[in-house]
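Supplementary Methods, section 5.1.

A reviewer requested that the exact input to the structure prediction be made available. We therefore reproduce it here, unchanged from the version used in the analyses.
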Amino acid sequence: MVHRAIVVVASLLALSWAAAAQQMRPAPLGNLINSGSISGMVQTGDGHPARNVRIEVRSMSNGQVLNSTYTLPNGSFEIMNVPAGAYEVHAIAGLNDTIERVELRSGDSFVSMRLPLPDGAEAGENGATVSVAQFRVPSKARKIFHKAQRALDKGKYAEAEKQVNKALEIFPDYADALTLRALLHMDADRHSEAMADLQKAIQDDPSYALAYVVMGAAFNRTSQFDQAVRTLQRGISLNPASWQAYFELGKSFVGKGDFPSAVRNLDRAQQLAPDTYAPLHLVKAHALLGMRNYADAMAELEKYLERDPNGQSSLQARQTLEKVRAFMATKK
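The structure derived from this sequence is encoded token-by-token as follows.
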């Protein structure tokens, strides 16, 4: 009986890995390079620019802070790579907090906000975390980059690559554009080109969290899991709200066979990610099978099939689920 159990468990893991391996690609391009940006202007009550005001973009579904920045001397701000969804934009200065709601569907959104600050006042010394590199990008390059994003969202990869190359011709040190192009290279299995773009993106802007996340995904794709873990942990230190980083980190630990660590990171990804993102459940099911937690693994497989019944891994997921059920039935 013990020998049979070992054989069945090995079979389950092998089949689960076949399904999970289909998800060992980065999160969809439209998720990693998100669909738009939120920019705006913050003014004092009498209409003057409010500088050094903290800006937070919070999800209206769970209240999580997606990203934050500070206003420039002219009162402006911009937060890029924001997924489509409903958000609250908070402008915070001391005890003062004003809120605007934004429904971001595609492209960009602009908000105008007012805070009851004295004329010309600042929110205080903040050691602003806004990347200087972001502000050096010419507006023309930004506009072309946004065209590339929109093409990507529509699945027009050739057009996206065309536009992102145009943006990089204008400004070769554009970390966002380099990262988007790296994703396009990865999708075409051009890994060396992707890594070259990512290394340059990080060199040009060491504080750009998304470049580390995509590089971690690239390391996962080539089974370099230790390098992936180190890279993704750096990305998380820069953007603790990045669900993609936790998802990729979970996959890294699956690859290393450290299933408890995988589950912890995938749990965190599930807290932050859209509820409809099915691959999270499939990868987590594999990690749970590795821990021989069959009941929870079945639940994750069922969630995956509920969210993506006709996906590329649905057949393998159904086969795995049936095998787990049959195995559990023998233990009753």
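The longest strand covers residues 36-44. These observations are discussed further in the main text.
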